[in-house]
């Protein structure tokens, strides 16, 4: 099986097997909720991962509603899927700030073909969560936003990391998007289970776009330097 075959199969069978969720929190599974997410993500992985090469693993937090919640591809919203990856998307073309940063960084690296030939992005928790307020409005919810949810998904996250490793990624280094709670949680799990020899944390794209957009190029350069260092450039 190619790397693409493995990822596509994993996504097609992805279900939530963690503990009971807190009241008002639901699981967001684009591969069960949208056939288009399956179609476009399969096209994406076949385009960039149809080989048996190992990649460096990058782990984000969990999917968001307007990015991978729509496309099934981490940090890739419908706009970037069409404009940067050349893959057609039907319906509402949503915009996610994290995806904007990621594809500016990817283009600075050399483009999607070059980047995805070396790196594979997923998340500590491969499925997303949303909360619904008293007015029925739905918002993203991170796995660490409550201790109850974090405890419920801990074993699920451990299983997910093992599953991602079994795709054939490099375990000498794992990159972590998020230098706060996401990094702390991953490091704690890594100390317990010894998944990776080293973890390199980088500021989360959403944080950069929300709070550091004026110096965005600094963070693009920081990402590129971190990636180049492990590849011996």
Automatic annotation (TrEMBL):
UniProt protein name: DUF4918 family protein
Domain of life: Bacteria
Residue ranges occupied by any Uracil-DNA glycosylase-like domain in the UniProt entry: 48-226
One Pfam family here: UDG
InterPro entries tied to this protein: Phe_SMUG2-like, Uracil-DNA_glycosylase-like, Uracil-DNA_glycosylase-like_sf
């Amino acid at each position: 099986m190619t790397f693409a075959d493995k990822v596509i199969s994993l996504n097609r069978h992805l279900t939530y097997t963690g503990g009971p969720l807190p009241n008002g929190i639901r699981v967001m599974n684009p591969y069960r909720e949208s056939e288009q997410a399956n179609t476009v993500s399969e096209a994406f992985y076949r385009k960039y991962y149809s080989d048996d090469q190992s990649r460096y693993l990058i782990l984000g937090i969990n999917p968001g509603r307007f990015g991978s919640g729509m496309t099934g591809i981490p940090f890739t919203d419908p706009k970037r899927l069409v404009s940067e990856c050349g893959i057609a998307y039907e319906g509402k073309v949503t915009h996610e700030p994290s995806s904007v940063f990621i594809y500016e960084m990817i283009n600075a690296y050399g483009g999607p073909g070059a980047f995805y030939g070396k790196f594979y992005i997923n998340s500590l928790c491969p499925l997303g969560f949303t909360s619904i307020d008293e007015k029925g409005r739905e918002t993203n919810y991170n796995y660490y936003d409550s201790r109850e949810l974090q405890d419920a998904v801990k074993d699920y996250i451990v299983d997910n990391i093992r599953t991602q490793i079994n795709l054939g990624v490099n375990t000498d280094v794992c990159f972590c998007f998020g230098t706060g709670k996401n990094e702390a949680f991953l490091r704690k799990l890594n100390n317990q289970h010894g998944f990776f020899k080293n973890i390199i944390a980088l500021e989360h794209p959403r944080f950069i776009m929300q709070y550091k957009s004026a110096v965005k190029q600094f963070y693009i350069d920081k990402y590129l330097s971190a990636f180049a260092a492990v590849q011996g450039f």
